[in-house]
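Course assignment 3, question 2. Fill in each field.
Student: A.L.
Task: Predict the tertiary structure for the chain below.
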Amino acid sequence: MDAPRQLQSAANEHDDVTITRRDYDDENVIVVDFGPDVHASVDVVGDTVIVVAGDQQYEFERPPEATDITTNDGMLEIRE
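Answer field:
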């Protein structure tokens, strides 16, 4: 699974936004860090994911492979 296009665009446009993919034996996790002192929150409404990070908001369709979408220490985590 790749990071949603909207988050990839944010990483391309803002130097502070980084996307990391972590592969473990039993799961894969995409972690999006929106930068220092920026804490993300997430709401999932139906198939729409809404992420608010600082003064930015991102909306995207829930990836079909995603088993869990949460935040941890202010970073967005998408688990597969």
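Instructor remarks: The CA atoms of residues 69 and 78 lie 5 Å apart. The radius of gyration is 12 Å.
Grade: pending
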